[in-house]
Automatic annotation (TrEMBL), chains A, B:
Keywords linked to the UniProt accession: DNA-binding, Transcription, Transcription regulation
GO molecular function, one term: transcription cis-regulatory region binding
DNA-binding interval(s): 37-56
Protein name according to UniProt: TetR family transcriptional regulator
Domain HTH tetR-type residue range list: 16-74
Residue stretches in coiled coil: none
DNA sequence: AGCAGACCGGAACGATCCGTTCCACTGATA
DNA sequence: TATCAGTGGAACGGATCGTTCCGGTCTGCT
């Protein structure tokens, strides 16, 4: 019997591929609209609804999985950042990593739509500890204004997640820019680097006034 | 015939009072959830659904009115701020006023749920001009970092509107704090004032994980 | 070749939910 | 007392969505 993972053709392979495709589609869809219907995920993934329900017992299950993945990603970003020797760089790359991964939207806007597992509780606690460690190092570096606290990071990430335009690539750019402003605001020393990304242009937000769906 | 406005008792007076009550309730409800049902507004206002439909032909009508009111409030804040002699103070009080009035949520999260009137288009344009005027004065004061543009203000306001906790009083405090960080980030000179309001506390955001409705 | 079953697409179902309409009722006014 | 603007809230009709279910397809094994 060949190892199933190596079989590129065949039913098993399609199923394995669908595992990925479905998760990716779900991520994209629920990131765009946390209350999106299950059918939207199936459509985006290019599969039928059955393919979803074969993998997850319910919508809540899928949401839980997605949120937990986000949490793990958050922890991974923190771990990566902690390996960086320079305290301030570790701090700011962590934030950039979380913003780029769009983890906050997943974690925050999906939380409350399902009953969390115990493991998620533990992971959430660990995530908090890692963020605190990064924050403490940033504080030790002396570049933080003294009146900032760890919990401000939550607000900061939320602020970045709030930036959203129809094009997701552009959204990422604008978030980086917003993050740069916020980090500069947290810093005790004046910023030296220029704000990243093309500045928002006149009329770039006019789409808001167009009628939606 | 007595002037209707001065009649404190009676049906007319109740109707006049309801005009206010309904608008206020609608503001509160749709601020909390832009997709809230009409019935929620009626309940919050303590009136029946009829009282709503007597005043507005449809939900869309009410939304339009609310959004337009928000736009007018934005303009009023800008006008007030423009009277301030110091350029930088004018700029920052304008932002604080808009954040405090929670105008951005109304304008932005409600936009797109109705077809705007021409007058709203004109007001939106005027709002943009006033904001630009304030921004230009801030720039002229030399306290702005050179790579910031007017359009960044939109992102900044959105970031503040994204801050939200169940208690609205606390929300206002946290937004002020967030605004202070952002304005510090826009500034070319290091901030001197300490961050306002009680700093966010540990566990203050745990409510997110509690199951919602 | 032939069969069992894993896997899938998508129609159908049942349960909400929501905007709007409708009607009976109240109380101020004339 | 007659009128009627103003009101509360039940009822209606349409839309939405999570989930189930059935018929079909392809794979791997015998």
């Amino acid at each position: 019997m060949p190892t199933p993972e190596k079989t590129l053709g065949g039913r098993r392979a399609q199923a394995a591929r669908n595992d990925e495709v479905i998760l990716e589609a779900a991520r994209a869809v629920f990131l765009d609209d946390p209350k999106a219907p299950i059918a939207a995920v199936a459509e985006r993934a290019g599969v039928g609804i059955s393919a979803l329900y074969r993998r997850y017992a319910s919508k809540e299950d899928l949401l839980r999985r997605l949120c937990h993945d986000g949490l793990r990603r958050y922890i991974a970003e923190a771990d990566t950042a902690l390996a960086e020797p320079d305290d301030w760089t570790a701090f700011s790359t962590f934030l950039a990593g979380v913003v780029d991964a769009d983890v906050h939207s997943l974690t925050v806007h999906l939380a409350g739509t399902f009953t969390p597992t115990e493991e998620m509780g533990r992971d959430a606690m660990r995530a908090g500890e890692l963020a605190a460690a990064l924050f403490d190092r940033a504080r030790a570096s002396g570049r933080l204004r003294p009146d900032v606290v760890v919990q401000d990071l939550g607000l900061l990430l939320e602020a970045c997640a709030a930036v959203r335009v129809p094009d997701s690539k552009r959204t990422a750019e604008l978030r980086r820019r917003q993050l740069a402003v916020l980090v500069a605001g947290l810093s005790a020393v004046p910023a030296t680097d220029p704000l990243p990304g093309p500045a928002p242009a006149a009329g770039e937000f006019d789409w808001r006034w167009r009628r939606r769906e």
